[in-house]
Amino acid sequence: MLNGGKMKKEKKEFVLLREKIKNYNKILIGILSLFILYALVHSVFILDCSSSFVELGESSKYSCTNFPNEIYEFFSNNYMIISIILLIAAGVVLVLQKLALLKINQLNVDLLDEEKVNKNNHILITLLLGYTGLHKFRTENRVIGYIFLVNFVFFGITWIIKTFSIDTFNDYTSIRCAYEFSLLFIIGIIILCVIDAIFSFLSIKDEEERIFA
């Protein structure tokens, strides 16, 4: 039985960890939103610059209407590197968040509500359906859940067009761009889900639902 002083100390630590986890979640949402914003900006540049095409001997060059060509070239040449950096940053923040959740596991269990999310079921759903955001909806972390779900829908639509209407896919640069970014994003999401599942396996019980409910 914990004495009153230790109980009070653990309650204070629980509150601090909960706020830290919520702050990490806000940062994670910001990074994922930044990735989507970057994809949209990249698409705008592509739509503007791919509409005009200048032949230069054996080579060719896009000429932008509303934006400097240098900006388009930067986005075009570095989109993969920038995307990977953003997804790595998201992974780092997720790890920090999960480490804080593991610390909550070490606190007195009387501080926590009755478990609502079965840990093993959560791991299974995260690994099999995490790219849809379902595991985040189950733990009440709805904003990230919606981000994952919207990307999955975009990927699904563009994949169907690519698979069953290749002419349409090739004719519309915006569709190709949406497919490439949603594919890259969904790969990043799957990696985030694996990290999520690993930390859930290491935990005594899954605490995320108690933090965001």
The helix count comes to 8
Instruction: Identify the overall geometry.
Output: elongated
| Sheet with the most strands, sense and barrel status | 2 strands, antiparallel
Strand content: under 5%
The computed structural class is mainly alpha
Helix fraction bin: over 70%
Number of domains: 1
Helix/strand layout:
Elements: H1 4-49, E1 53-56, E2 59-62, H2 69-105, H3 119-129, H4 134-138, H5 142-164, H6 166-171, H7 173-202, H8 208-212
Written account of the structure:
The protein is mainly alpha-helical and 213 residues long. It has one domain (4-212). The protein has 8 helices and 2 strands, in the order αββααααααα. The chain has a two-stranded antiparallel sheet with strand order 1-2. A hairpin with a 2-residue loop joins strand 1 and strand 2. The radius of gyration is 22 Å and the shape is elongated. The two termini are 28 Å apart.
